Amino acid sequence: MAKVDLLLGLQWGDEGKGKVVDALTRGYDIVARFQGGPNAGHTIEFDGKKFVLHTIPSGVFNERCINVIGNGVIIDPKIMRDEAESLNAAGVNLTESLRISKKAHLIMPTHRALDAANELALGKKKIGSTLKGIGPTYTDKTARRGLRVGDSLSSNFRQQYETIKASHLAQIKNLHYDINELRLDGMTFDEYEKTWFEAMEYMKRFQFIESEYFLNKALDEGKNILAEGAQGTLLDVDFGSYPFVTSSSVIAAGACSGLGIAPSRIGKVYGIFKAYCTRVGTGPFPTELFDATGDKLRERGHEFGATTGRPRRTGWLDLPALKYAVMLNGVTNLMMMKSDILNDFDEIKVATAYRHNGETIDYMPFDICDETTEPVYTNIKGWKSDIKKSIPQALENYIQFIEKYVGVPVSLVSYGPDRTEVIER
Ligand code: GDP
Ligand code: IMO
Ligand code: MG
Description:
Blueprint: E1 4-9, H1 17-24, E2 30-33, E3 42-46, E4 49-53, E5 66-69, E6 74-75, H2 77-89, E7 98-101, E8 105-106, H3 109-122, H4 134-142, H5 157-174, H6 189-203, E9 207-209, H7 211-220, E10 225-228, H8 252-259, E11 266-274, E12 277-279, H9 292-300, E13 313-315, E14 317-318, H10 319-329, E15 333-337, E16 347-356, E17 359-361, E18 373-381, H11 393-406, E19 410-414, E20 422-424
The structure holds guanosine-5'-diphosphate (GDP), 6-O-phosphoryl inosine monophosphate and magnesium ion.
């Protein structure tokens, strides 16, 4: 029976998911995004070209692949049109290959304004959101008052929009936020709103579908599906370092509800992690480095956000956190990314436990946001050489140490941004 394989980030996002989805697409008929929205930035590099995708699945560079934006995703039509147009300019035609769930929710311009107002109100306690309207849009979805892609086909779409907008404007006023000061992609609110409606019309060139039927029928016909996760497990709304999380279910279970796929139809679960750790935005990060080593990781790894350009926080690999993510997702295959960034270290540290409230623990504690959680490190010898097609012995030792700790094999090692720079183990 055909299955849906899942590809998920196991840390705080930006693990290199886009690259792996693109590299794996040859084996799949369909690639489907199941959660998140334009907070994601998935980078794909090949033939000296570089693309960053936010809403559109990373299977678009394989001509025989159908790409589905599932019901669990939230879409800003303006951001999506910009993305589609730049892909079009690069010769990627999406009209035939892209399908959008009618049940996917729409990010309205006032959702973005609310995101900014909420963050401002939080002051020092802000989440460090990407300001794409993610939190407010998922809030409206669960509060049962959201606007969906399928609604855009209705004759009273504008009326539905205006009703929700009015309630948003009241909330924004309550937060003492002046919407006239807001700039969205360099535009005033009114300019952005006008562009948003034009982009909504543009979107109608793509097929709006009942994606749950489409995907289940494809499975019945024996087609292979890859579900592409966004963000990472440590940003999950239930299991991440709440409240410093995103607003969707990013774990394996989220793929079932975000696509309408039964758990019995899930096949392999590819868990993607970096050979070290990064995080953007606020929130706990036990192995974070504030010294020259952290700067070295950021510089060598070009650790600046693909969506917002913000510098990413950097630190050593955190094995209790990785093991937690492997457990929550039922990972069957691990893929280690950005191994090349560690090529020039005499010694590499890896956290195997935490000191927390005077105790040594090896799990993610509930109060991780309130208490200091210090890492307990094991030192591992660096490989001090370039990785090309084969794995140096010291890197092999590092990988085996990780495998032993988390109990799942590392089946792929990535050593550069290009889609060809991978070694299968
Ligand atoms: P995603 O959000 O998980 O898709 O990851 P991002 O695209 O936000 O960030 C990953 C970054 O690392 C991108 O700039 C990739 O081009 C780059 N990258 C991916 N794999 C590797 C690797 O093995 N080595 C190096 N040096 N860069 C990589
Ligand atoms: P990809 O798919 C890294 C982070 C933000 C912030 C928190 C909440 O590229 O891995 P939100 O805008 O969702 O309300 O922000 O989550 N965040 C990400 N960090 N990669 C991402 O996506 C992220 N998407 C959201 O920085 O801390
Ligand atoms: Mg990213």
